[in-house]
Write a structure and sequence with these properties.
There is one protein chain. The chain is built from eleven helices and five strands; from the N terminus they run H-H-H-H-H-H-H-E-H-H-E-E-H-E-H-E. It is an alpha+beta fold. The protein has two domains: 192 residues, no CATH class; 148 residues, Alpha-Beta Plaits, CATH 3.30.70.270. Helix 5 runs antiparallel to helix 6. The chain is elongated and about 105 Å long.
């Protein structure tokens, strides 16, 4: 039998504490559950408003209306307390959708028992409650909850007949029960079809996002391609202008790259580019944007970085690449890079900054390669 890990996902093996990202994710999910509950609670309040309308037409007495308001308020406070305290996390469905559904149904059935004319509101809000249930449960689970609701309604009809002996009201109740029982399967069928359509749309959306992301990437290195880099540079300029932060660009070129294609073949050249990309990725900051501008030329966008900081980063990259061991059939010398660096001057076109960095790269090449110029 396999032994389970003593640590839960997202908990550090060194400290035994849950990572901040996991905690933020849990808080975000809990906040979403609370928002959904508050949205559902708005329909409970709307139900009370409808009861007030019934009361204005003498279809429900003041005592029953007050009791309904007290029950709804107590349930809202109870569920809200569970979400705020985290007690809901102890249940298999942390959203407590089924419990909310049953609480609303039993409340409405109690009101319908006390005030038979409110059965019209029960039918409408019963299906509204089912629609909320569709957000979290399968059609099978909803069918079970709907069956429980119909049985509870039948019990209310039986109690009313036993206690009040009003055949006409019971006859109307039975007709309404039949209508709901006949309508419910079709409602669940259509709801299940809508959920399948939504699931299909979600899958298509994910695939489209994946296609869009791949379109932004260079197939060989996995870094951003030229088109994406141009957009990223414009966005970086806009951000730098908005928050008045420094911005620098590094234009990087692999020295004498043509020799790899000439001495070996283009597949070897591709292997060198991939090795370079892996080495660069290991040293990138989370705020940097890096991409392949074309051929063996790459661009690094250094957010909130001055010229001096960008030069220091470029020197570290140059040194790391110069020690990179690229497996080749035979040695033809170290892989080196030349780098040109320029800092964005507020107000200038970003391509002018790029042009200055490219000119600095040309000087680095002219001065012997394997160097950084600005």
């Amino acid at each position: 039998m396999p032994v389970a890990s003593p640590l839960q996902p997202g908990i550090s093996a060194r400290s035994g504490r849950r990572s901040p990202d996991v905690d933020r994710g849990n808080r975000s999910k809990q906040a979403l559950r609370l928002r959904r509950f508050l949205f559902a609670s708005a329909f409970s309040v709307l139900y009370l408003v409808i009861l007030v309308v019934f009361h204005s037409q003498d279809k429900i007495d003041s005592v029953t209306l007050a009791q309904a308001a007290a029950i709804v308020s107590a349930l809202i406070l109870a569920f809200c307390a569970m979400f705020l305290s985290g007690l809901n996390l102890r249940f298999p469905d942390a959203s407590l959708t089924a419990w909310q559904f049953l609480a609303s149904i039993f409340t409405m059935l109690y009101v319908a028992y006390r005030a038979p004319d409110t059965r019209l509101a029960f039918t409408a809000f019963f299906f509204v409650a089912l629609m909320f249930g569709m957000l979290r449960h399968t059609s099978g689970k909803l069918a079970m909850l709907g069956g429980v609701s119909l049985l509870a309604f039948a019990l209310v009809i039986g109690l009313r007949y036993a206690n009040q002996h009003e055949p006409e009201i019971v006859r109307l109740d039975l007709l309404q029960l039949v209508v709901i029982a006949v309508t419910l399967p079709w409602f669940l069928f259509i709801g299940g079809h809508v959920k399948r359509l939504q699931r299909g749309l979600d899958e298509v959306s994910v695939k489209l996002e994946d296609i869009e992301e791949r379109a932004r990437r260079d197939d060989l290195t996995g870094f951003y391609n030229r088109r994406t880099l141009l957009v990223a540079m414009e966005e970086a300029k806009a951000r730098a202008d908005a928050v008045r932060e420094p911005l620098s660009l590094c234009v990087i070129d692999l020295d004498l790259f043509k020799r790899y294609n000439d001495e070996f073949d283009h597949l070897t050249g591709d292997q060198v580019l991939r090795a370079f990309a892996r080495s660069v990725e290991a040293g990138l900051r989370s705020t940097d944007v890096f991409g392949r501008y074309g051929g063996e030329e790459f661009v690094q966008i250094c957010h909130h970085t001055t010229l001096a900081g960008a030069i220091a980063d470029a020197e570290r990259l140059r040194e790391r690449i110069s020690t990179l061991d690229v497996p080749l059939p035979r040695s033809i010398g170290k892989l080196t890079v030349s780098i040109g660096v320029a800092q964005y001057q507020p107000g200038e076109p970003i391509m002018q900054t790029f042009a200055r960095a490219d000119e600095a790269l040309y000087r680095a090449k002219k001065l012997g390669r394997n160097r950084v110029e600005s």
